[in-house]
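S.,

Sequence below, as promised.
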Amino acid sequence: MSLRSQLLKGILEGCILAIISRNTVYGYELSVKLEEYGLTVSEGSIYPILLRLQKEKLIRGEMKKSPSGPNRKYYFLTEEGAQALEDFQKNWEEIKPPVDSLLRKETDHAEERNDQVE
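The prediction came back faster than expected:
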């Protein structure tokens, strides 16, 4: 598994909760919305997460008529899911600045090493 895949897997649940908190969506629509934000995720990766989020009662699924084709399962955020999203956002805001800082410093250190070599 690539590093990008591992990182994405770690934050994908929070991103899915964020999308569902804005609008009810069905699985394929969710993958399209993630891609609109620059996160390319296969449907095969999304459905196991949706099942897990349902088991944890963070979302609920409801079959509804589709404007075109068969019925679709639409996902809604629960109260527990709203709390989990709030927790995710808080944790993200806490971890993002030090990681950004570390990566900037690493870039600065790499530039310093390159300058020393020349």
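The chain has a mean pLDDT of 87.

Coffee later?
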